[in-house]
Amino acid sequence: MTMGIIYGRNDDMTSTRDSFLELSDAGLLAECKIDCFRGTGPGGQHRNVTDSAVRLKLLSANIVAASARFRSQRQNKNDALKKIRMQLALELRDPPGAAVSATPVVSVKNREYPGYLAGLLDIIYDSEYKIGDAASRLGASTGKLVRILARDPQAWKWINDKRTIAGMRRLTKS
Questions:
Q1: CATH class of 11-91
Q2: Contact 120/20 with Cβ under 8 angstroms?
Q3: Residues near 32 by Cβ (< 8 Å), separated by ≥ 6?
Q4: What is the C-alpha separation between 11 and 14, in angstroms, rounded?
């Protein structure tokens, strides 16, 4: 179960997303309930005897992420933490705050990327999903903003889902 969009709630909740995104992995893990379990599916004997799959629940935001991709519980915890960070960036909206650059300063794989993406999506949300308006606020072209969104499958799905709900045309990759 995940939380819907939060926008303009009290200061404690709106600042929570960014404070969670800024936490170290150990700090974020301390805020989560951790469940270890046996993964299902292929993997042979190892999968049937160890609790290497991990489910993390960020209690204060009611966000859940699980990972069973790896044979190692440590790797699965790290993978679930990445998923938690991306869900925070995708699902919780704050009023646009600090300036966001239209030029990504980090790679999609970088630990700081969810914070960058969250700021970008806040501006798009505040612009009512109008890419041209958001691009103007960012000082970028519409095409550049579309390319930034298109390189991240989760962000691409987010913007197209929101635009569809708003009765707008889906974006297409050029």
A1: alpha beta
A2: no
A3: 56, 57, 58, 59, 84
A4: 5
Contact 116, 100 (CB under 8 A): yes
> Which residues, including other chains, have CB under 8 Å from residue 149's CB and lie 6 or more apart?
155, 156, 159, 171
Work out whether the CA dihedral 70, 72, 78, 80 comes out positive or negative: positive
| DSSP assignment string, the chain | -------S--HHHHHHHHHHHHS-HHHHHHTEEEEEE---SS-HHHHHH---EEEEEETTTTEEEEE-SSS-HHHHHHHHHHHHHHHHHHH------S---SS-SS-TTSTTHHHHHHHHHHHHHHTTT-HHHHHHHHTS-HHHHHHHHHTSHHHHHHHHHHHHHTTPPPP---
Q: What angle do CA 103, 104, 105 make, to 5 degrees?
A: 110
Lowest-pLDDT choice from 83-87, 103-107, 137-141: 103-107
Which percentage of the chain shows pLDDT scores above 70?
80
Smallest Cα–Cα separation from 36: which of 59, 25, 52, 47? 52
**CATH 3.30.160.20 intervals, the chain:** 11-91
The pTM assigned to this predicted structure is 0.80
